Amino acid sequence: MDSSELYIAINNLDVDQVKRLLKSGSATYINKSSSERDPPIIDCLTSLPLLDTTEEDDEKNTKCDEDKVYEILNVLVQHGADINARSHLSWPEGGTPLCFAAAHRDSRCLQFLLESGADLSITSDEGYTPLMVALDNRSFECVTLLLEKGDGINAVTKNGNTLLSFASLSFVYNVSNICKILHLGLDPTMSRRDQNCIHSAVSDGHVAVIRALVNKGFPALDLHYEEWYDDYEDLYSNIFYRLRHLRISPLAVAIINASPNVAKYFISIRFFTRFDIVRLCWDPEISRHVLDLSKKGCTAATQCLDILRYLSTTPQSLRTLCLVAISCTLSKDLMLDDSDTSGNEENRLCKPTFKEKVASLELPNLLKRALLHQTPASGCCICSWRYLPIQEGGTSVECHCKYCEGEDYEDEYEI
């Protein structure tokens, strides 16, 4: 008897045959792998296709197959299968059974592996954690289970991707998850891969993500549109393409997108960049674009015009200008160098991070909090952004409602 019979039974999801083979001597092969096969426990978890099932019959068949996978997994573990076995054929290479349960959105198998003592600290060859795989595959039940463990929040892959990198690939699906991983302690400033998160969140209208990133110390950056904008329809007539020679700020994106409430939030906490200070109010392309929207009857654009007029006629305080200058200097190395094609993790990471740099400054804590935009207004409810005063010195009460935690993201566009 050789191991091929066991693999065939697993791939056919033949529970009874797997049990018979393990009782008759195939247990000796239970942790064996070869150049052509992963360990049986990995083979079991990869038996189901990575597909979205929409038809009712497909859902029933998938549920039946998931039950068989779960039963086979139990049998394999009972007979001594290594719950921390590593794959060398399937993606992610070097991944453990936890990674493959997450990849196949199998929360029941994931729960079983966790309860059986599977090691969450083991990553794939490229540095992927089970939570990263779950986020990448939109395995939301698996994400919830893994977030409860709270391990590996600040893990980074070899190419510099973090949990935030994976979650932000699909903002609309991961708003609440982004808020959760930030609350659990993820430092959003540790990888250059994540430099575009606020620009993307502003462009897509995900206010809960904006608020969470700001409250966790993400700095205001100026970026080229290619670094964050991914809607290439009518590209050459697009305002962002016409501004392609400039690095623009999150506030500028809010103004261009006619998002006055987001703009008010940024202004109230002085979330400014160099672009905001020296160019935003006087850039002819931006002014013309917002004016055109206003003439077409867009009330939000009219409010943005009023904001631009206010900023152009109200000088910022010396304190604000100094904080912007310091922030620009400290966040300079967070910018990803487009010429770097090495893929070296060391070139993607910021050591020390922006937050660590601020913490090391010999400044009063009040100024350090201001540099991190942790002001009295930064934690205010997103439902009240429209009422925020844009002059300096506003105060508010920190909020933890369902909107601010990203739990009701479908309504975000109405705020």
TrEMBL record:
Keyword Repeat assigned to the entry: answer is: yes
Is the keyword Hydrolase assigned to this protein? no
Q: In its UniProt entry, what is this protein called?
A: Uncharacterized protein
Fetch the PROSITE patterns from UniProt: ANK_REP_REGION, ANK_REPEAT
- SUPFAM superfamilies, from UniProt? Ankyrin repeat
Cited Pfam families? Ank_2
Q: Where are the ANK repeats?
A: 93-125, 126-158
Q: Which InterPro entries match?
A: Ankyrin_rpt, Ankyrin_rpt-contain_sf
Q: Which residues cross the membrane?
A: none
Give the record's keywords alphabetically: ANK repeat, Repeat
